[in-house]
Amino acid sequence: MTLLADQWAGNSKHFWMRGEPPREPVVLDEASGIWHVYGYPEALEVLGDTGVYSSETARRFAPSGGEEFAEGNLFQLDPPDHRELRRLTAQAFTPRVVADLEPRVAEITHELIDRLQGRDGFDLVAELAYPLPIVVISELLGVPAGDYPLFKGWVDAMMAANGQYDPSDDPEKQAEDARPQLEASDRITDYLLEHTRERRKRGREDLLTRFVQAEVDGQRLTDHQIAKIGNLLLVAGHTTTAMLLANAVLCLDACPDQQALVRADRSLVPTMFEEVHRFMTPVSAVYRATGTDTELAGRHIPAERMVMVWCAAANRDARQFTDPHTFDVTRDPNPHLGFGRGIHFCIGAPLARLEGRVALDILLDRYPVLGLDPHRPPTFIPSHDLIGVQDLHVVAEPAEGRGGAR
């Protein structure tokens, strides 16, 4: 994976991308006071113990606006609040709802590729990886197609702000860098709040209406909770899937032998998608805060300390994965942490897997020859906790006629 190693050579935070193991599984950054968790079993311990490692980081470390940020945000809640909200969300966002999307995902993928006819090169991020998941989740939520450009503007602003934000900075700079991201997120929430209130009056056949109607043990979601959940699905769902699709093409290009295996045996597409999530994990780190003094890997961590769990590094831990720095599309089992673990396991994982499987299968059908443009190397998202490309220019040779997912 020379290309990937070269691209990340200057980013010390993602040292595992160069095949370098951490000096210890748990490391304290003396300057910031943040504890970094790199090991797989240590990551499992943190993600699985909500009593010690709290997800309510905003309330603890941003008291001026933390509670408002956390309300309805599944990422920021601990039990029992998280359990109740998750149950209500899961009642509307069911496996059947996701499975029924497969024909539409295939249709959108074909439509996006059809627009590229006559072109022997294009930016895969701009033309497919980004628009596919945002169209899918927008249609699922039930928001107008004409408003997609609004989402792109808001999400682009959030991603740009994410590139500036670093939790190791002093609190004043953190607040300054986070402000544009929070403002863009608020715009999305306000937009979805308006649509949620409209669904209270007139329901439709969409996910927002299902959230409005969801009820467990007499409890219902509030309008603000629905808007926050919709925000989470819209932003986290489509950005992660977009990065996974682009990362998959990047990995296959860097490993021609693995691409040949997948093209010869399309049943490997699902396991390939999981391996991309392990090998080039889009959301490389998640955050927790210690509620009590604790010990992890023999290190004493005091209460009220920020903990960064580097899932991307844990996914390269040789104690868990054989040949962890080898991209292997046949790897099975593959218990990666790309979708998280425990109570915060990604609720959108089934949708991401469906989109990835269908889109990648169709892409390989439609383009028997597909590779990176040697004259336009990819650029990576400037972020401390995301691993993905901003653009991915490819050269492509289309098949005759219109292929289809197998």
From TrEMBL:
InterPro entries: Cyt_P450, Cyt_P450_B, Cyt_P450_CS, Cyt_P450_sf. GO terms for biological process: cholesterol catabolic process. It holds the Pfam family p450. Keywords: Heme, Iron, Metal-binding, Monooxygenase, Oxidoreductase. It comes from the Bacteria. GO terms for molecular function: cholest-4-en-3-one 26-monooxygenase activity; heme binding; iron ion binding; steroid hydroxylase activity. SUPFAM superfamilies: Cytochrome P450. PANTHER family: BIOTIN BIOSYNTHESIS CYTOCHROME P450, P450, PUTATIVE (EUROFUNG)-RELATED. Belongs to the cytochrome P450 family. This is Cytochrome P450. The lineage of its organism: Bacteria, Bacillati, Actinomycetota, Actinomycetes, Kitasatosporales.
